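Final paragraph of the annual report: two paired records, presented back to back.
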Amino acid sequence: MSAINQLNSIFQEIFDDPALVVRPETSPSDIADWDSIAQVKLVLAVEEVFGTRFTTEEVSSLHCVGDFIAALTRGKGEIA
């Protein structure tokens, strides 16, 4: 499963919306419930699913779905 598909599943679960479709440019302005609490839940879920830990600097740079993809691929090789 590609990173964007895995992230889409995570977003669907966190926002309890099975019809939600995210793209790299999807940001909090596109999802009404994407607030600071949801951000923490997203970070924790992404870390768990991908088996990684983000640094504080990486977490502070997560402003859209594409930023999650970039953080996942940075220094870890390409995640398909």
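The closing record of the year follows.
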Amino acid sequence: MAMRILLFGYGVASYLVFFATFLYAIGFIGNFGVPRTLDGIPGEPLAKAMAINVGLLSLFAVQHSVMARKWFKDWWTRIVPPPVERSTYVLFSSVALILLFWQWQPLGGQIWSVENPAAVLALRVLFAFGWGLVLVSTFLINHFDLFGLRQVWLHLMGRPYTALRFGTPGPYRLVRHPLYVGWFFAFWMTPTMTLSHLLFAVMTTAYILVAIRFEESDLIRDHGEAYEEYRRSVPMLIPSSRRSAAARASAPASVPASARTS
């Protein structure tokens, strides 16, 4: 029982680190309320600063994607107890982001700047919408399973882990990856686009588009024809009224297993 309590505490601590990192990321990308942000006064030569930033983003991308693959999990759970595999993934992802926040190098430069107050407000609202959509999407796919809390809770209670059922609630009937759509709004909706912000937005967008391919391959492996039919019926990121209507008519409304990998 002591080990179960210890693993549960580890899972909760990992989640709290994630949640603090998530809140910091809002200020980091939005350039408000935190000590270090995407933009600021450059402190390194442009080439060196860009190389550091690309390295930080690449480190996060590799960690976030490799640790989500089945072959890695099969090996990793020989080292870490299976109930905290997801919590460890969440913790390592948070640490990679914390390193990025700490070592990020502002690049200077300005790509665009919106001055109209109404347009600025609209962009801020869309930025907030993106973060809200990210959070809502995690709850629709079972927030607590996605971030490892369900696994450690079931282990604490002495109950076996059960995989989530496939289904398409809410925005999952409009696009297959509403969580990623939220990230795009969060990354791109800014009244002032600097070179730093553009590098961040371009690289994270490219990573997401690549990660979707890996994620959907895993989902097809896990759910077979059910996910294949979903993929044929529902667009990836941009809603289509004709295809979404077909999805609403045919898809179940249970908890989706999408976004369990990245």
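The longest helix spans residues 2-30. This concludes the annual technical report; the extension proposal builds directly on these records.
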